Amino acid sequence: MNDRKMTVLRLVIFCVLAFVPFWIILPAMNAHFGEPVYMSEAAQPAVYALGLFGMLIPSVAHLITRLVTGEGFRNTYLGVNIRGNGKWYLASVWVKLAESAIGALLIWRLFAGELSFREAFPLDDPKALTGMLLLQLAFTLVVFFPAFGEEWGWRGYMMPKLLQLMPKWAAVLLGGVLWGLWHAPLTVAGHNFGVDYVGYPWVGIGEMCLMCVLINAFLTLLTERTKSIYPASFCHMVSNNIGSEVLILLAGSDALTTAVDQSQGSTFFSTYVPLLLITAVISMMLLRKPNAEITS
Q1: Most buried of 104, 210, 213, 260, CB within 10 angstroms?
Q2: Residue 289 CA, distance from chain mean position
Q3: pTM summary value
Q4: Per-residue pLDDT of the chain (296 residues; tens, 9 = 90+)
């Protein structure tokens, strides 16, 4: 078997191993609890366990694929490689924090523009707010390992294979769609968008695919430039736990929070997607440079 066919085979095996668990477990959980599990209070302990261990599935798929196909363990992206790459490690955290902060301000202006800045963000007790933000950052570190679980699979294995088979833009697009579809059982179960929206669950699945395509560009850039999976893992953990709406919950007034709740998810396309698109476009421009090659 030639190298290209073997790469395709390994990619298919990886995707099957990564996709099958959620497509079995989540429908079974929905049936057991009689409703989408993310909407069920009784299911919350199981949901937390699923979130913790489910994010490890892509890494397990990565590991098994290497073993069953005899690929070995070269070019695993497990090296830290921080020397000369400090700016990318910093970018992995600060780009997402900047997106969240700008997004919170956009949400205020677009959905609660009648409120002054002081009314939207009272900041009455700066020390308490700083403490809450630091606590949230500390909590974010707790989810580093689940974030790594996804990243070692998607950016540490899937993307290098796709980049061997097709142009960078196509690899980022297809990789993002695959990543988004992996979330589909979660979306059906009410994760991310709930179930009370027009077009459930197909609109939610489409939104997740769009979001994953855009985020995939930046995560792939981080991985390619550092040849390490850790910056993407840091970025993933920050993205999951310190988004715009989290900042609004921590620093925003009750009036601002109410306005966000009443937006019925429209903040996604009006604030979140444009910011992700800007980051994705810049990332793709950088990926097009001659030295932007990921090898497997």
Answers
A1: 104
A2: 25
A3: 0.93
A4: 789 999 999 999 999 999 999 999 999 999 999 999 999 999 999 998 898 899 999 999 999 999 999 999 999 999 999 999 999 999 999 999 999 999 999 999 998 989 999 999 998 778 777 888 778 877 777 788 999 999 999 999 999 999 999 999 999 999 999 999 999 999 999 998 889 888 999 999 999 999 999 999 999 999 999 999 999 999 999 998 888 988 898 889 999 988 887 776 678 788 999 999 999 999 999 998 865 444 43
